[in-house]
Design brief:
Layout: H1 4-27, H2 30-52, H3 58-109
Length: 120
């Protein structure tokens, strides 16, 4: 059985999903990105299963190579954007923690009334 058309179709599906993931990452649509990533991983698993016992011919691999390059480039860019988002969230958490500490300290001090005492 020739599974090459199925493999090509699956690679095209992966490319479409990959481009969609990159678009969502650029737009900051993180929840939607995760939903699409689930479909992407599922397609990768199907592809792995399809080619596990029937490797592609050298000719088929040559045809798929540009799609693979595009997939790798998209994945690298999505990873970069996710890293930026992680750093942003870390800064927000650190700022929130610092603000909480300041408010906690201020709350402790607000009960103490500082008065100037004359020592005559």
């Amino acid at each position: 059985m020739n599974h090459t058309p199925y493999v090509f179709e699956t690679y095209q599906q992966l490319l479409h999903l990959s481009q969609n993931m990159l678009r969502l990452a650029n737009e900051g649509e993180w929840d939607a990105l995760i939903a699409v990533e689930v479909d992407y991983v599922s397609a990768v698993e199907k592809l792995a299963a399809a080619t596990q016992h029937n490797p592609l011919s050298e000719r088929a691999l040559q045809q798929i190579r540009p799609v693979l390059r595009h997939l790798i480039d998209n994945e690298a860019e999505v990873k970069r954007l996710l890293q930026e988002r992680q750093e942003e969230l870390s800064r927000l958490i650190a700022g929130s923690t610092q603000q909480k500490n300041v408010l906690h300290t201020y709350g402790k001090l607000s009960g103490n009334v500082l008065m100037h005492h004359d020592h005559n």
